[in-house]
Structure formats: C-alpha cells, structure tokens
Amino acid sequence: MTSVRLEYGGKTVDLPVLRSTTGEECIDITELRAKTGLTTFDPGFGNTAACASKITYVNGEKGILRYRGIPIETVAEKMTFVETAWLLIYGRLPTMAEMKAFSTRLTNNELLHEGLLHHFDAFPPNGQPMSILSAVVNSLICYSPEIMDTTDEEAMRNAVAAIISKVRTIAAFSYRKAMGLPFVYPDPARSYCENFLHMMFSIPHRPHQPTPEAVKALNLFLMLHADHEQNCSTSTVRIVGSAETNLFSSVASGVCALWGKLHGGANVAVFEMLSRLAKGDESVESFVERVKNKQARLMGFGHRVYKTFDPRARILKKAVFDLLETERADDPLINIALKLEETALNDDYFKERHLYPNVDFYSGMILRALRIPLNMYTVMFAIGRVPGWIAHWREGNEGARRLVRPRQLYQGAVETPFLPLDLRQDEEWDNEK
Ligand code: ACO
Q1: Is 42 helix (H, G, I), strand (E, B) or coil?
Q2: For residue 307, with 0-12 CB atoms within 10 Å meaning exposed, 13-18 middle and 19 or more buried, which class applies?
Q3: Pocket test for ligand 1, best of 65, 225, 231, 301 (most atoms within 8 A of CB)
Q4: The dihedral of CA 368, 370, 375, 378: what is its sign?
Q5: What pTM value is reported for the model?
Q6: Residues lining ligand 1, judged by CB closer than 6 Å?
Q7: Fewer CB near the terminus (10 Å): N or C of the chain?
Q8: What is the tens place of the pLDDT at every residue in 359-403?
C-alpha cells in the first residue's frame, strides 16, 4: 500500500493513499487528528475529497465528464433525460422493462395533492420561482407523509419517482401562477419533457404541441445538468442527508444552494450580462477590460474543476445553433456571446487562469429558444439536477453512514472577560454600530 509520511512535533505518521478507479488519488487523513493532534485546512474544499463516490467522474484538466462511466457526449446523443435519471440513481443502464416501469411510476406520481395547490395562492405574483420550488418541494411530505419513509426498496422507488415527476409539475405551476394563467394538469400520454412544455404553454382548449426539436433540446438541457459530482448543491444535499433528513427536504436544500449566482444562478447572470451588452451601452472589449480589472465577473466562464472547456458547454453551443434554425433564428444574444467568448479565449488574463466557458454560458440561449422566461432558468437547472441529488443522497446513506460535521481553524478571542450590560461604554462598541 502506498502511503505519505508526515513528520510533526517529533512524531512520524504514515498516511495511506487511497486508490481511485481513474483520476486523482487521495491521502487518507481519517487518523491524522488522533495520531498528531492536527486537522487540515482547505477553505472551499479545493483539495478535499469529501466522500468516495461511484456516480460521476469529472476530469477537469482533460474536459471529461462521465455518468456511471458513460461519456457525456454519448449520453447527450443517445439517451433521454428519464433514462439518464435511472442510470444515475440505479447505477447502470435500464432495460426496456425497467424503463417502462419507471415511466409508469413517473406518470402515476405526476399530480400534486389538491391541498398543495393552495400554497401557490399564498405566493405573490412576482414571487421568486426558486423560493416557491424549494418551499413546495419541502411541503410535499406534509401531504404525503408516507413518501418520507424510504427504508425499503419499493418505498424508495416510489419516492424517487414522486420527486422527479412532481418537481416538474411544481415548476410549471409556479410559472402559470406567476403569469396569472390557470394550471394545466399533466397529460399522462406525453413524455416527461413534452409534458413539461405542455404544462407551461398549453391554454384551456388550445393544447400546446412542442416541436420534436424543442423536446429534444429540453431533454439535452436536462441531461447535461443531471449531475456533476460534489458540486455546491450536491454537497449540500449530501450534508443535509447525513443528518438522516428525508429525501424531499434534502432536495429542497439543494434547490436553495443551486440558486446562488456562482452556482446554478449563473445562467440568469449570463443572460443579464449578454442583454446589457446587446443594448450597446458598453462594448464587449470595454466589459472584458472591467472584468480583468476585477470590477466585473465574466459570468458563465471559469470553473472550480474544469481548467479547459467544460464538455457540456461544447455540446450546448452546438445545440443552440441547431435549435435556432427551427425555433428562433434571430437571437441577437448569440452574436454577443460568440464575440465575448472569442475575446476572452484570446486574452492572456483568461488564458493564464485557465478560464473557459462553463455549462451556463450557452444554456440560457437554449432556454430562450424554448421560450422559457428568465426567472425560470435556475428552476430548469434544478429540474435537471434532481436525479443527481437523489443519486448522491442514496449513496451517502448507504453502508456506514456518518454525520457530516467539519472542523475549523479557530482564530477568535481566546477567553473574553464578561462585562455586565449596565457597565458597557458606548465607545467600546463602535464597531458593532
Ligand atoms: N471572470 C473573471 N475572473 C475570474 C472568473 C470569471 N468568471 N472566474 C475566476 N476568475 C479569476 C479570479 O478572479 C481569480 O483571479 P486571481 O488569481 O487574479 O485572484 C482566478 O480566476 C481564480 O478564480 P477563483 O475564484 O479562485 O476560482 P474558483 O474555483 O473559486 O471559482 C467559479 C470558480 C466560482 C465558478 C468562478 O470561476 C466564477 O465566479 N465564475 C463565474 C460564475 C459562474 O459562471 N458560475 C457557474 C459555475 S458552473 C456551475 O456551478 C453550474
């Protein structure tokens, strides 16, 4: 067994190196504290493997992404979102019979409890859809408490189908509510993605029939967002799940983590950035200069793991061009995006820091072509990421589960003398005002 030797305070410890099946290997520090009294310091966890996983492999230097060993390019070309969800959650490609059974479960779970519909009335018309999504996902268990119990495999299969299916219905209903439109109930005869577009855009007595290209593009969008190993929201779901919190509340916490603009919220920030530049108040060159001077951030660029092109960005860029041919041939934002990408990729600031387009750079243009409104962009990401969250929640709860509870490097006061309230002078507390 390979190990790493550490010498500290007159002690020598050999720390084993854990083997991966492919990619980076890890120093096992589980006994470090007991043997040396030391802990490790790694803000942002840039050097820390928080768990062992068999779900998704990312190689950030080579731009490789695989779901359960299957390259993302193959997933994108040959699979559907529902099939991808099954692959991620159950660990292998489903058979035809398994796919049919899964689809039936999704259909059986597509409706929301009628009582839950009143929750939508309580939100203001311009309520944030991500806030509505997390609140309603968390509320599902109040109406169907039985889905909280996932201790046996049959119950787990139902909970998996319930969350994947209902998240789509919740997302569409939150949009309809915001638009002042009546809810359109899911149509069991339609596929997962077609059904979502139907719930979004049909109106009573005028069913919306999305084009096959639109359905294909939505499948692609969701598949490319389905998992990305230990990202911020997935780590959140794993941490919350480690406290034995139920699947639904753990997923609701993932929705909240995804909302941030350095994570899933970046797809909204990219769109806002491109729209501002399209207005012409500032040139692409001057914006890039501001980015280099740290007065702005080029949204949709850079990634903690990828130091080359994000493979998902490549696939999405091509898909945008394919889709624009059929859905919206005249999007001015595409030209701004292309110019911005070219300017950045040829600039030393971005080259030296290995900053390339990430999944969010082109994803908004797919959504725009599908006529998904801006405030739903991160919700769309969430629908796609649900299978990944479920897969990680399950994996984190298999075998020897351990509550996630990091340590810290404490740098605060050692021991502060207590002063009674009536003796404290105002000037001593200036910093707190
Ligand atoms: N624009 C300009 N400069 C950037 C950018 C960017 N988008 N991203 C990183 N940098 C710079 C940093 O300022 C830093 O420069 P310095 O060395 O001069 O200080 C250097 O590159 C390293 O950046 P870090 O912030 O250390 O990289 P980190 O791994 O922490 O951040 C992140 C990754 C948050 C994604 C960052 O690249 C970013 O903010 N990108 C824009 C937001 C975005 O697109 N997020 C979506 C990510 S994909 C996803 O979550 C689905």
Answers
A1: coil
A2: middle
A3: 301
A4: negative
A5: 0.94
A6: 44, 231, 262-264, 266, 291, 297-304, 353, 355, 358-360
A7: C
A8: 999 999 899 989 999 999 999 999 999 999 999 999 999 877 799
